[in-house]
Structure formats: structure tokens, C-alpha cells
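Q: Hi! First time doing this. I have a protein sequence and I read that you can turn it into a structure. Is that right? Here it is:
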Amino acid sequence: MGELTKLTIAGARDALRKGETTSAELTEACLSAIEGAGALNAFVHHTPEIARAQAAAADARIKAGGAPAMCGIPLGIKDLFCTKGVPSQAASRILEGFTPEYESTVTSKLFDAGSVMLGKLNMDEFAMGSSNETSVYGNAVNPWKIAGDGKSLTPGGSSGGSASAVAADLCLAATGTDTGGSIRQPAAFTGTTGLKPTYGRCSRWGIVAFASSLDQAGPMTKTVRDAAIMLGAMAGHDPKDSTSADLAVPDFEAMITGDIRGQKIGIPKEYRVDGMRDEVAKLWDEGAAMLKDAGAEIVDISLPHTKYALPTYYVIAPAEASSNLARYDGVRYGHRARLAQGDGITEMYEKTRAEGFGPEVQRRIMVGTYVLSAGFYDAYYNKARKVRTLIKRDFEQAFASGIDAILTPATPTAAFGLGEMAEADPVEMYLNDVFTVTVNLAGLPGIAVPTGTNADGLPMGLQLIGKPWEEGALLNQAQVLETAAGFAAKPEKWW
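A: Yes, that's right. Below is the predicted 3D structure, encoded as C-alpha cells:
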């Protein structure tokens, strides 16, 4: 049974079509693996009854013929996605007890394609964090460890539970969301593949909002091919989301040819940041060499406004969070504080939010409210919007010059220990997003691919950034990198 959980989406699809296994068997194998992996704290709401019913329906559909590629595939769903009749808390106490009466568009598309939901996955509260340490459910834990060291490592954030579950073979794939790197950074920390599509490629409807102009759902998988298959089921226009692009969804898997001869891959000099670790720089150089060996031309480029990306992001994202999270007030749903006699509505708001939001969410709401306030709106928020436009223009000019994709590190380090950065210095934690936030600010697609290990044997990844709406080309480039790197390491089971 354990071998079934190690299948990729592509491998499981083929095995299901050949009758070598059933979705019911796959699902039971995953449910058994989840039951034995409590130490990872990846799954926080379990839905075995739903999973078994969906698996039975998928098997009947496959037997009838013509089933979609994702039919029968067991998945984990990040707790940020609203799932009908299943707790959807965004890992926050303030949404305790909230069970939606509707399904997010992305999960609806996956379930319509016959996918199986095993349960909801851990994450940073309201997707705010880079280490999965801000969750009301407690820390998610990386299945990777340093040999001979019992220290628990972060799986990254905010999609830490998704990354941990995929890396530990608890599910065949998982949904994630990416506001500033929350798919790509956890993927790099866990030796998995994480794809952030172009902003607007996947509907945001039914996904609990953090920063509406930055949030984007995407697949977290074991391979690049799996990311292509899963994105095909997740993507598409949604009239319920005004930012959803009315574009046809191509066959992303068919666009993976393995041929990138003659393409130009840009290497931005601004990403060679001060203090970059030698192992990161070495991995980056090796990745460039792999793409060159595959026939691509490696070109040095400049993205001059990169140095302003982090401060710009940490003005815009908290500002939008401050606006989005104002709806959580104890009036309509979720947690409501116990009030003292004589308390009015203002006291209810204050006490509910103080109890319901964790320290990191409170910090970002306060920063966001400050930069949106009358005296500081122009000085901070408007200036950040202007700089965002310049960052986007840098990418547009690079692509207009003939660059087909951009290669960068995915993270400044490998996974660090849980508790090492939390609360000590929030800014230090924010620096984890240094290579990823530009992609969200510019609305571009980006993918993290595992390409090697560091001196401690922990996985490390590289990021490829593509042109808007050209996920197929990006996935093809990523496939070449994945094949050349030949990353096949898996964490040794300790949980």
C-alpha cells in the first residue's frame, strides 16, 4: 500500500487507466499514510468519508471511459480554500467553526475533474508567514531532517502543510496559494515542485483573501509534468472573479517537449544579493549550465528595481490585508469574544480581533492600516504602487529584448529550524521572500524546481520566471531543468 502513495499524478493516471490499481486503493493508501504522520501536522481537517465517496465515483467514471487526467487522484487542499461543509479556517482562530455552504472555484474544478479530497492542509494564518509557525493548528513540520540532528525544520510557508504532505507522500499533490512566494519557497524547502501561475489564470473566488492583487492559486506536486496536469484542471475563466482572465486553457502537458534549443535564459545581476551563500550561488551557476547544455543561450540581464521589491511588497500586501481582514469582526461568522456587561459593538470588535488574530496577522493589519491612513497614503502606499509599476516594466523590457525565461534561486537558504526566526526578528523572516516577491508584484508565472542538496543533505531549488500566460513554455523549460538535475532524493521516514 505504501508504494501507491509514492506515485506521481502521471504515474497514477496511467495505472488507473490500465486497471493496475483503483482510486479506492490509492485513497486508502493515502488515508493510512496520513493517519501515521501526525508528527508532521500537515493535515488539520480529515475528510475520509468524502474521499471514499469521491474515489468510488472516480472509479466508476474511469471504468466508463473518457475520464479526465485528474480523475481518481487523491489531493490535499490548503485550508485557505473554502470547501463546502468542511471547516475552512485559514489556520486562524477568528474563523473557528466556519463551514462554508459553497465550494471555491478551484476546488470545484478539481472535483468536477474527479479528484479526491483527503482533507485540509496546515498553513500560516491567513497565508501570512514564511515558515508555517503562525498557524492556530501549530507548526507544520518538514519531513526532511539533517542527518544525525533531531531538530525539526520548517517546511516553509505559507503553504507549509501542502509542501510537507507532498514531500512525505501523504497525497499525490496539493493545492497551494502564492502571494509573495508561498508556493515556491515551501516547494524549494521540501524537494517538491511548486508553480505560481500568471495572476488571473486561476480563479480566486472562494479562496480566503490576503492581498487581492497578489494572491494566486497553483499546484504543488512531485514533478513538473504533474504540475502541468493539475494546472490544466485548476485553471480557467470564472465570471465570479473579476480578475479572472477570459483565456482558453491550453493542454499544458502537451507543451512539454523537452526542447529549449535557441531559447534565451536571463540571469539577473540584481539577484546576486549581498551575503548570498556559496551553496546558493553554486546551485544557480549549475542550473544555468544545465540549461546551456540543453541548447539555451544564457544572457546576463538587469532588473534594476529589484532592490525595492521587498519594501514595496511589504507596503502593498499589508495594506490589502488590512482592507480584506476588516470583515472579521465577530458579527457574521467565526469566533466572537465573550463580552462584559456594558460592552458595545466597539468592544466586541476589539476583543474579537485581539483574541482571533495571531501576532503576525495583527502586525500586518497595523502596518497596512498605517500606510493607508490619511497622512501617509501618498508617502507609502501610492509610492509603493508606482515602484510596483517600475518592477513590472523591468520584466516587460527583459522579455521584449528576446529573453524567454529568467533563472534565479528560489530561496536564500535551505530549510531552517522551527523557532529559529519566529518572533526574534520579523524582518529577517521577510527576507525569505527576496527572490519570489517580484513575480507576484509583476503578475508573472514562476516555478520552483528541486535541483540539488546543500552540505547538510537538505533540498534546494531554483526558480524559473516566465512570460505572462506562457505557463506551457515555462513548464517545458522547467522540465529540462528537472531532467538535467535528476533530483530523486527523498526524506528518510522518521515520523
